[in-house]
Amino acid sequence: MGFGTDAVHAGQEPEPQTGSVTIPVFQTSTYQQAGIGDHTGYEYARTQNPTREALERNVAVLEGAKYGLAYGSGMATISTLAQTLKAGDHVICTNNVYGGTFRLFDKVYKNLGLTFDYVDTTEVDNIKAAWTDQTRLVFVETPTNPMLGITDLAAVSKIVHELGAKVVVDNTFMSPYLQRPLEFGADAVLHSTTKYLNGHSDMVGGILVTSDEALHEQMRFLQNAAGAVPGPWDCWLALRGIKTLHLRMQCHESNTRALATMMQDHEAVQKMYYPGLPSHPGHELAKRQQKGFGAIISFDVGSLDAAQRVVQTVKLFTLAESLGGVESLISHPAVMTHASVPKKDRDAMGISEGLVRVSVGVEDVEDLAADLKAALDRALN
Ligand code: P1T
What we know:
Strand order of the largest sheet: 1-7-6-5-4-2-3
CATH class of the largest domain: Alpha Beta
Largest sheet: 7 strands, mixed
Number of domains: 2
CATH architecture of the largest domain: 3-Layer(aba) Sandwich
Shape: globular
Helix content: 25-40%
Order of helices and strands: HHEHEHEHEHEHEEHHHEHEHEEHEH
Bound molecules: ligand P1T
Radius of gyration: 21 Å
Number of strands: 12
Structural class: alpha/beta
């Protein structure tokens, strides 16, 4: 089936009792049992929920995976993934991951005995250089948040498998419409469903999909045992959002290309990070690995003061954390999403005080362009 057909239908048969075309919100904590040990397969809602299962089946199909498991947030998903490891295990992680991912690893799982190395995975050799006998997981975010570095998923998967560990990819910035990491050999893919999958900025959630049965079984055990589950209503909102994922991504994409073209010539923009520009170091790789360049642009206007003027002048871009919704958002990574990353590491990656990130929505592109241009003009004085 085509992507749009799967987005609308996969994993969602009409509900058998009433024929309800959309999967109902099974808003229950438990299920009646006919006798001791005699149940329908549904015992308790932390363990099984039909609305959640529909979302899990749907995203698994969209990513080309056999299995999916949903969690209460993107961070809950990554946390559950970390719980599949044990003290002494070593993780190699993309250095420029979402700040919350770094915080979780650095402030929580390091204390529990996991060890981490953060490397620039856009250079595959850095993974080899960081390898130890205890390396069990390579955690890749591509494109990265917020610098939009592109990692070669086929090359990384090949090396990591030869060396004997697993590759898990945070595909939040792309959505399965634009990138399907399992096709390049990754072992599992995760998303903050809060972003493009839901697409309407009205819930928080996460999901991990894989065809690796052992990993899936571990993640399923932990979903129940540790209990970081999403509520059914949030799963339903994610499912509803996904039905238009392909349509939204096309619009996000074309809007972003147009804005990037306008911005690259603007005097206020000292540096621009967008894989769609031929000058971006990951441009050729992104063309091979992705079906488009995504809808995030980061740009440096030189100072905190200029960044303040930009975020205060825009009217259509709302100053807020998050991304991937129909409405355009603007944020300041150094103070907002990546405040937990030490300043010296932020500086080394280019997350400067003048760096601004936009998540381009699906509004009319002429309006967005005029809004952003006025803000960039303002940055100059
Ligand atoms: O917010 P949550 O659903 O827990 O997802 C965390 C997360 C995971 N991975 C990536 C790549 C992300 O960007 C995020 C969340 N990011 C933001 C809130 C942000 O503004 O960048």
